């Protein structure tokens, strides 16, 4: 046990040391060469360019802070809907124009890749095969698994509420480099649900789940210290895996975990295992090149590495974002008792919470959409890389330039949403105008829209229905406020 602990400490210290050294060496090369390339990639393209805040890091402080969405809103008001800036040495275009989507997501041509990192033919294959696991038909089968986890969550709340006047469902905590995550009740619940639905865990576990802590270690501390050097983190992770294999240490624990679990016939893992082929290497042939998706024949195969990484991706993407959305909605209902009462009246008529009954709750659906309009907290993941120079409207997008969608500015545009844009009004989605539907992008837009949108919406509906059947939400005296800047 001590040897394993010492190895983990050595690994962390070595990674940080290597990262700092590489950052120093890499930085000395930036000004004369890569900065000129970065400026050339966005210069004279039809949009304004934000002046650098730092001679070396450019506008990296804007893109790598906790207030990035507010800072992008400030820049949008100053420079317009589309503008360019430099992230370290990376040319980037920021836009809140829904018509602009020049490309695919950031590429990763390594063997073990998931849908979010893949592109071209490989992305289409992984996306299509994963979509079958998250189809409406399969979600209907998984509904009772989700409901069972939520029922256990409600039972725990009922037991705790006896001894206290108020419960903190989703505390906000600052993180340190190593211990950066203080898990909330909602996070434990949503991880329990995604573990059972994605990987097929046969039981519910919402207290001290060791696999949740295991998964959170996949967030590299190096990326938080030196966020512009992600490639070093990936390189060190691969070296550590080879080192473990050479000395017969534990392999990737998630691989062992997924192999151990029961193959539930409705879990996402089961669907992917059905098309697994460990000998197939067809993904290497033009897998990441631009292609015509409409004429493409989808090969019904996934490699073991793709399955493992797709499970990891779906698990990471599917628990924290859903927990945050549920927490924001509860917060808004506590602040707006009239809307809470209206939602309660809609839910109260349900004799039983079923897959079909929650789909008919129109006001609940609107409340979730309004929450995600006000807090599109995963919006910065909607980034693209231009794979080929193109022109969209008056703007030129050069090859390999990054594109980030400023969803917050779009969701707070008074010309689209009206003068009450900062208020929580679910009714605005009951008779939503075409322009509003087009500009609601909480889950992204286009072919790369979030694949788990239906799963997340169903999960949140079950959680809110079950909670409002039992409890009411009220503001406490010390409850913090979120200010829409």
TrEMBL record:
<keyword id="KW-0349">Heme</keyword>
<dbReference type="GO" id="GO:0020037">
    <property type="term" value="F:heme binding"/>
</dbReference>
<dbReference type="InterPro" id="IPR017972">
    <property type="entry name" value="Cyt_P450_CS"/>
</dbReference>
<keyword id="KW-0408">Iron</keyword>
<dbReference type="InterPro" id="IPR050476">
    <property type="entry name" value="Insect_CytP450_Detox"/>
</dbReference>
<dbReference type="InterPro" id="IPR001128">
    <property type="entry name" value="Cyt_P450"/>
</dbReference>
<dbReference type="Pfam" id="PF00067">
    <property type="entry name" value="p450"/>
</dbReference>
<keyword id="KW-0560">Oxidoreductase</keyword>
<dbReference type="InterPro" id="IPR002401">
    <property type="entry name" value="Cyt_P450_E_grp-I"/>
</dbReference>
<protein>
    <recommendedName>
        <fullName>Cytochrome P450</fullName>
    </recommendedName>
</protein>
<keyword id="KW-0503">Monooxygenase</keyword>
<dbReference type="InterPro" id="IPR036396">
    <property type="entry name" value="Cyt_P450_sf"/>
</dbReference>
<dbReference type="GO" id="GO:0005506">
    <property type="term" value="F:iron ion binding"/>
</dbReference>
<feature type="binding site" description="axial binding residue">
    <location>
        <position position="450"/>
    </location>
    <ligand>
        <name>heme</name>
    </ligand>
</feature>
<dbReference type="GO" id="GO:0004497">
    <property type="term" value="F:monooxygenase activity"/>
</dbReference>
<comment type="similarity">
    <text>Belongs to the cytochrome P450 family.</text>
</comment>
<keyword id="KW-0479">Metal-binding</keyword>
<dbReference type="GO" id="GO:0016705">
    <property type="term" value="F:oxidoreductase activity, acting on paired donors, with incorporation or reduction of molecular oxygen"/>
</dbReference>
